[in-house]
Design goal:
The complex is a heterodimer of chains A (about 90) and B (about 500).
Chain A: H1 3-12, H2 36-50, H3 67-85
Helix pairs in contact in A: 1-2
Chain B: H1 6-16, E1 21-25, E2 28-31, H2 32-48, E3 56-60, H3 65-77, E4 80-83, H4 90-100, E5 104-107, E6 120-122, E7 145-151, E8 159-164, H5 165-179, E9 186-189, H6 196-208, E10 211-214, H7 224-230, E11 235-238, H8 240-253, E12 262-265, H9 272-281, E13 286-291, E14 300-301, E15 316-317, E16 322-326, E17 339-344, E18 351-352, H10 356-362, E19 363-365, E20 371-381, E21 387-392, E22 396-399, E23 402-405, H11 406-414, E24 421-425, E25 434-438, H12 443-453, E26 462-466, H13 479-488
Helix pairs in contact in B: 1-2, 1-6, 2-3, 5-6, 8-9
The chains are: A mainly alpha (about 90), B alpha/beta (about 500).
């Protein structure tokens, strides 16, 4: 996964984050305007655009809590098929 | 044992099924016996802090387990509960504090700092066990008030509707005559308990002996399907935005919440595409359309899946009540004609708190002194008496000389495949009518599809496609927020 791809999808859904502002990895995404509806849009866009599928057990509030927790979840989802192939 | 006061509902269930789960939030579950015990302990605690009959108790805890016991605790003292959203703006909260003059406020840790100038307590202060000092005997009459429910509407500030014990119990009983909540139901409510739709889930579940799972906005997002499944949810009260989320998540996961048997919808019409998708996603699911307003709680409930047989209908008025369309003089109109929705029956609430003029205008009296609610909503009825909502009086606007309703345009937009939500902003000084839709769509497609469904003179002057529409705390489209959002985008489409 390209980090900047993840970032650009994520930032698109944070309406309270100015374009040039930095996004701290541990800051709650809620603070930047990620409500439940936006989080659903974000989930679908991440899966579509990064070609990943988040497994069921990652559908928790913790996964969508911060940029870092979400990046980790998406990273795991990307790595999984590759690990199976090897 | 018949319930005459609100807490009798709980006392009855605690006698019938003491060990059945009553309420749950996260890992915490209380049985009916525990819920009753808590409500008695809380009542003693409130009394010790000076709460007496007729007092208002403000609950800034719209998703807390404690709130489900506190409403009964207030009832035991003859006091009124007032549940508020914890996302309320200080501007509105200050107004409500002055308007309701509560004896005290109970708040979650997060919301405790919001209220100033009144005694504020935290939920953690509440005792788990009673001392047994509550006097026997009834605290008040069934015609005494038990709740204030604040709603926003045509007034500039939120106003409160007063409900008596008898009115709440009648409404709950009439609603359940249609919906049929059962003792083995698990009701998942992620709407705030400050919203009457959420609040009545407490009363309906308690009445039936069902288990109420209290969720919050965090459960309304990507985690929704998982939550519904892990709690074994059978009944899910939703609003259109939640229906859209659920449909998409089930489609994505490829498996439904197995035990889900019924969803109810109110607040705004459910798009036909949403009902169709939900039934496809969840085999055997019953989708129930309802219509209501806080002033009489619920007006009508449709047969399950009525969108297939009477598209757009909100069903028949509740048993024991009457609803009709009236002309400007208040006379009944024949079937098919549009007029003001008027409601009669024991579901009509007691009026607005400290607003005698507005109360006189809306809550009128018939020749026998009985209340007749003039809702300010526009509607029509078909030959069989089924209600069709047309719009609020304030939703009616004129464009190119033609009278039309926001709802008409929104309904046409929702009929376009791919449109998840739609909201129309009526024309103002700055711009003509603007339609915003949510969905993965292109503007020219939406405009073309609207043109198939609406006469040209009715088409909005601007169409905007967004990922999602801003929602109020009750899950309805927040039109004020939408207008600000569009202004912020410089009107680009």
């Amino acid at each position: 996964m390209e980090d900047n791809e993840f970032d650009s999808v994520l930032r698109r859904h944070l309406k309270n984050l100015p374009e040039d502002a930095e996004l701290p990895g541990d800051a709650p995404l809620k603070k930047y305007g990620l409500d439940s509806m936006q989080a659903v849009e974000l989930l679908f866009d991440l899966e579509d655009e990064l070609g990943v599928v988040l497994p069921d057990e990652m559908m928790t509030g913790d996964t969508f809590a911060t940029a870092e927790s979400l990046r980790r979840a998406v990273g795991t989802a990307v790595d999984e098929p590759a690990a199976e192939m090897s | 044992m018949t319930a005459f006061l609100l807490h009798h509902l709980l006392d009855r269930r605690a006698e019938l099924t003491p060990d059945a789960p009553a309420v749950r939030r996260g890992e915490r579950t209380w049985t009916y016996h525990e819920l009753r015990t808590r409500s008695v302990a809380y009542a003693e605690w409130l009394r010790d802090r000076g709460v007496v009959r007729g007092d208002r108790v403000l609950l800034l805890a719209p998703h807390a387990l404690e709130t489900t016991a506190l409403v009964h605790a207030c009832s035991r003292l003859g006091a009124l509960h007032v549940v508020l959203s914890d996302r309320i703006r200080p501007y509105h909260l200050d107004h409500i504090l002055g308007d309701s003059e509560p004896r005290l406020v109970l708040a979650t840790d997060e919301a405790a700092g919001l209220a100033v100038g009144v005694p504020v307590h935290r939920l953690a202060e509440l005792p788990a066990t009673p001392s047994g000092s509550l006097p026997a005997g009834e605290p008040c009459a069934a015609t005494d008030p038990v709740a204030l429910i604040y709603t926003s509407g045509s007034t500039s500030m939120p106003k409160a509707v007063i409900s008596t014990h008898a009115q709440v119990l009648f409404a709950a009983s009439a609603i359940n005559a249609r919906l049929g909540y059962r003792a083995d139901d698990v009701v998942f409510c992620c709407l705030p308990l400050s919203f009457d739709y959420g609040q009545y889930q407490m009363f309906l579940s308690c009445r039936a002996g069902a288990c109420l799972v209290v969720g919050d906005d965090g459960d309304a997002g990507p985690t929704l399907l998982r939550r519904l499944t892990e709690h074994g949810t059978t009944v899910f009260p939703l609003v259109p935005s939640l229906a859209s989320t659920l449909g998409r998540l089930v489609g994505r996961a490829g498996r439904p919440p197995e035990r889900l048997r019924m969803v109810t919808n109110t607040g705004a019409a459910l798009p036909v595409t949403a009902s169709v998708r939900l039934r496809e996603a969840v085999p055997g699911l019953e989708v129930v359309a309802m219509f209501g307003l806080t002033e009489c709680k619920r007006v009508s409930i449709a047969e399950p899946n009525a969108d297939l047989t009477r598209p757009g209908s909100c069903g028949l008025p509740l048993p024991g009540t009457e609803a009709y369309a009236a002309d400007e003089d208040g006379h009944r109109l024949p079937a098919g004609e549009t007029g003001e929705l008027v409601v009669r029956g024991p579901n009509v609430m007691a009026g607005y708190w400290r607003a005698p003029d507005l109360t006189a205008r809306r809550f009128r009296r018939d020749a026998f002194g009985q209340p007749v609610l003039h809702t300010g909503d526009r509607c029509r009825f078909d030959e069989d008496g089924h209600l069709y909502f047309v719009g609020r009086d304030d939703d009616i606007y004129k464009q190119r000389g033609i009278r039309m309703s926001c709802l008409e345009i929104e309904a046409a937009a929702l009929d376009v495949p791919g449109v998840e939500l739609a909201a129309l902003l009526p024309p103002d000084e700055a711009s003509g009518a603007r339609l915003a839709v949510a969905g993965d769509l292109l503007v020219p497609y939406v405009v073309q599809q609207l043109g198939v469904r609406l006469e040209e003179q009715k088409l909005p002057s601007q169409v905007v496609v967004l990922d999602a529409l801003p929602l109020s705390v009750n899950g309805k489209v927040d039109k004020k927020g939408l207008a600000e959002l569009l202004a912020g985008q410089g009107g680009a489409s």
